[in-house]
Design goal:
Strand content: 15-25%
CATH class of the largest domain: Alpha Beta
Largest sheet: 6 strands, mixed
Number of domains: 2
Strand order of the largest sheet: 8-16-15-11-9-10
CATH topology of the largest domain: Chloramphenicol Acetyltransferase
Radius of gyration: 21 Å
Helix content: 25-40%
Shape: globular
């Protein structure tokens, strides 16, 4: 009888849980990020940042503090920190901190100082970081999320709630925290049940077929210390179905661009299932895309049937069939939908999303697709120590060409 990794993990978790409400099991996606952190020489978290610029002097640190506390009460996972109990990876939910959540930064180079503060934030201080820097030109708000807790969809939800609480501060009752913790546990347990069910023979046969001929990977297959990223940008005007639903076209473009080089690992992307919508910290997964014979748009639809299979289960299946690929990722795709979540407005003043360079490259290549109406901005972040600039530029150009061709095909 097949024993899923999820079921085995939950058995070990049960031995250390001992009824402690604040000790949560990790989902499959969280286990992957926990493993990645264990291979970082400094044990650093992978940070998902949001940078917002407002007119100078607009933001109140006190109101931001109250709003951040409201969000932390509503979403206990944001108070969580990855930990181990008896050798078992867990998420430990801490109480609301006594110390301030919002930190004000003063430095000549505010952007560099904000990134440094986000990057060196101790991992034991929770998964939600709020920083404010001011100068004579602007107020710059930086919100950092531990990727072990949040995907892009969750960051948008938290930002909406943070801005709503900033506008209309409301007291969160103490009983609300216990209710939120209970709701989070139920959501995580339901997710783990789905992951176990999605780890049966049919799912593993599907993913084995997907990865059987995948390459071992191109860049950073050995141990290395992630360094500052470099970025290449492309801008594409979308038309036809891609303007409303760009993800399949972008995914296909990433695959076609990467597949031009022999030995490439499958494209990976983060996926937020709908069942966990509204609960931060339980529904991200890392999914692979590597078609055999059909185009990726067709194969991706088939993959959706097995979308809850945890990443570690797919890796085990690949190793069992002695595939060259053993879990390494060359390229990770994430889609950010600005169409549904524009930059917030405070005190009648519209904010502006910023991209601030200089963060660590968590994977060799990360493609961030920012969708805003018919416009798509593609940012290809790469670690120049292991990915040559010419290779990143070639990927960017191939992506642009693929998306342009998909627009022509739709006409």
């Amino acid at each position: 009888m097949h024993r899923s990794i999820t079921r085995t993990y939950l058995k070990h978790y049960a031995n250390v849980h001992n009824g402690v409400d604040e000790l949560m099991p990790l989902t499959g996606a969280q286990r992957r990020f926990h493993h990645s952190r264990s291979t970082d020489p400094h044990g650093r978290a992978q940070i998902l940042p949001v940078f917002l610029e407002f007119p100078p002097g607009l933001l109140s640190a006190h109101r931001l503090e109250q709003a951040a506390r409201s969000v932390l009460l509503r979403h206990p996972a944001l108070r969580g920190a990855a930990d181990t109990a008896g050798g078992v990876p867990v998420l430990r939910i801490d109480p609301l901190p006594d110390s301030p959540i919002v930190r004000e930064i003063t430095a000549p180079d505010t952007e560099r100082a904000l990134w440094a503060a986000l990057d060196h934030w101790p991992t034991g201080l929770g998964s939600f970081r709020v920083l404010l820097a001011r100068d004579e030109r602007r107020d710059l708000l930086a919100i950092g999320f531990d990727h072990l807790i949040c995907d892009g969809e969750s960051t948008g939800l938290v930002l909406d709630e943070l801005m709503s609480a900033y506008h209309s501060p409301a007291h969160e009752p103490d009983s609300g925290s216990a209710t939120a913790l209970r709701r989070y546990r139920e959501a995580v347990e339901q997710q783990l049940d789905r992951e176990h069910e999605a780890s049966g023979p049919e799912a593993l046969e599907h993913w084995t077929a997907r990865v059987r001929d995948a390459g071992p990977g191109l860049w950073g297959t050995g141990m290395y210390e992630p360094g500052p990223s470099a970025s290449v940008w492309q801008h594409v005007t979308l038309s036809g179905p891609a303007a409303l639903r760009p993800f399949p076209a972008v995914l296909a473009g990433c695959h076609e661009a990467l597949a031009r080089t022999a030995g490439a690992a499958p494209v990976a992307y983060t996926w937020g299932g709908q069942d966990g919508a509204g609960v931060v910290g339980c529904f991200i997964n890392t999914v692979l895309a590597h078609p055999q014979h059909d185009g990726i748009r067709e194969s991706w639809l088939e993959d959706l049937e097995f979308i809850d299979t945890p990443f570690d289960e797919v890796v085990r299946a690949a190793r069992a069939c002695q595939a060259p690929w053993t879990g390494h990722l060359d390229l990770v795709l994430t889609l950010i939908d600005r169409t549904r979540r524009p930059a917030p407005t405070l005190e009648g003043e519209p904010g502006r999303f910023l991209y601030v360079s200089g963060h660590r490259a968590h994977e060799p290549v990360v493609v961030s697709a920012l969708h805003d109406g018919e416009e798509l901005s593609l940012r290809i972040d790469h670690d120049p120590a292991i990915v040559p600039g010419a290779a990143a530029t070639a990927l960017a150009d191939a992506l642009r060409d693929s998306l342009a061709d998909s627009g022509q095909d739709a006409r």
